[in-house]
Queue: 2 jobs
Job 1
Amino acid sequence: MIEFPHPSEADEDGLLAVGGDLRPETLLSAYSQGIFPWTEKPITWWSPDPRGIFELHEFSPSRRLLRKMRQGKFTFTHDQAFGEVIRACAIPRSEGDAAWLGPRLMNAYNRLHSLGHAHSVECWCEGELVGGIYGVAIGGFFAGESMFSRVSDGSKMALTHLVGHLQARGFHLFDVQVTNHHTESLGAISIPRKEYLYRLREAMWRKCTF
């Protein structure tokens, strides 16, 4: 088992350590300490300050999006196409972008999924997968890793469905690692790492099932 430095030892960008492996026990140990992998060549481990989260009980999607979800055109499932979701997330968003999710990370998350620790939400339209999101769940903690969309609002609808699912299951913390323009537009906020680690410890004790 890899012994990680304390998250407070990360540099100003959040980089904490380099090296190690991507075995399930290593990944679960990392997530339980507020640490996550970001690259695979080399393997890098991160714990940024501040930390991005969605406040589960303050999540408020737009009325337009909710109306779209209620039209009956789209359906949602859990863990029905994990492999396809993660492959779609690995595709660069635009030409010239680097693919951050390589084969080693994809295999690692697929192993976590087979063990019941990684999960996906799928958004379907007329039998076609049009959006999705995947992440890691431990106790009452969910770490959203990546999402994708093949139609307008596909990823937003998958995310909104996921939040409702986590709320219904009693989850306590939804981690998105670092915020960006897209997640901030959906309501993600940044909190100090110290607060995040406290809330993570609280969430880990909850007995939730995805």
Job 2
Amino acid sequence: MRLLLACIITVVVETALFWAAGYRKKEDLAIVALANVITNLTLNLMTGFIPGASALAAVLALECAVVVCEYLIYRSAFGGSAKLFALTFAANCLTYGLGLLLQRFGVL
């Protein structure tokens, strides 16, 4: 259940951020949502195999990989730009931080 909730929160927040940044076509938002479902579920499933002692470094490395993967998807769909990379990075920082906050309060 936690995995599904984390994915839903990520999809809602990141898709809303892209909408606010001007990506308003249904097709564009569907690409953002699908990219986030794929990367979020993959990341969260992979973190289950990481030993506790190396968890922080591994999670940060995986988060960086997620940013790169999502940006490559978005670049293919929307065209590449520094602004798009910054938006992708900011969206992932936001949802990572939100996830930490929700874990701290026992929501996730």
